Amino acid sequence: MITFHDVYKTYLMGETRVEALQGVTFELPERRLAVIMGPSGSGKSTLLHLAGCLDTPTHGRVNYNGTDLGALSSRGRADFRAQSVGFVFQKFNLIPNLTALRNVEIPLLLQNKPAAEARKRALDALDAVELRDRMHHRPSKLSGGEQQRVAIARALINDPKLILADEPTGNLDTRTGQRILLLLKGLVEKGKAVVVVTHNPEIAASANTLVLLRDGKVESFSTSHGKEGLV
Ligand SMILES: Nc1ncnc2c1ncn2[C@@H]1O[C@H](COP(=O)(O)OP(=O)(O)O)[C@@H](O)[C@H]1O
Ligand SMILES: [Mg+2]
């Protein structure tokens, strides 16, 4: 479970202060699909970065299953990111000169895991997104949807409990986006917490929890705890 408690994030740009988040409080349950919506600039990516320990709040607390993320050492933060979180981005962020397989196994190799283990887990992750037959392709030889599925496989490689996706279907056509949505829903069924920033109304419609941000504040929050197997 992720809890935001009175979270502020202020960016300093020279003389200018940008108040990206201004007193955000809410709770996202485990094993559920949460969707964050809001206009451009409303603080959605900032919120995701804080949840994934890529950044720290200026004020307030972000708590993950009892751990105050802001209180972690830089080593603790890196461990949290490596072990507990999988990130998926709008622009896929794959390494262009590496094959799909290498892109997926790279997080494990960076952690000095044995090559054979990295290979096996990367193949399993590519199976999970149904792309084993493309494992030797470089990103430029894959469609946008396939690249995003490789990125999801890479996010899954450490079997993280929390998947954070920032506009994952933003660069994809509707049908391809639907496939990515099904994949994300499947992850919830496998017990993961999935948090998606999106403008896609279909993804929003299948959310268990919907957070609407505006100007760095929560404009509305709705959740449907009790419903079993909602996604
Ligand atoms: N690293 C940064 N430095 C300065 N300003 C930033 C930074 N990141 C985001 N911002 C600003 O914070 C506000 C919220 O940004 P962001 O969280 O990216 O919004 P969204 O993802 O909803 O479009 C915007 O005004 C943006 O320009
Ligand atoms: Mg954003």
What is the topological layout?
Layout: E1 2-13, E2 16-28, E3 33-37, H1 44-51, E4 59-64, E5 67-68, H2 74-84, E6 85-89, H3 100-110, H4 115-128, H5 144-156, E7 162-166, H6 174-189, E8 193-197, H7 201-205, E9 209-214, E10 217-223
Parallel strand pairs: 3-8, 3-9, 6-7, 7-8
Antiparallel strand pairs: 1-2, 1-4, 4-5, 9-10
Helix pairs in contact: 3-4, 3-5, 4-5, 5-6
Quick structural summary:
With 231 residues, this protein is of the alpha/beta class. It contains 7 helices and 10 strands.
Could you explain the architecture of this structure?
The protein has 231 residues and is of the alpha/beta class. 34% of the residues lie in helices and 29% in strands. The chain has one domain (2-223): Rossmann fold. It has 7 helices and 10 strands. Helix 3 (100-110) packs across helix 4, helix 4 (115-128) packs across helix 5 and helix 5 packs parallel to helix 6. The longest helix is centred in the C-terminal third of the chain and has 16 residues, at 174-189. The chain is globular. The two termini are 17 Å apart. Magnesium ion (MG) is lined by residues 44-45, 166.
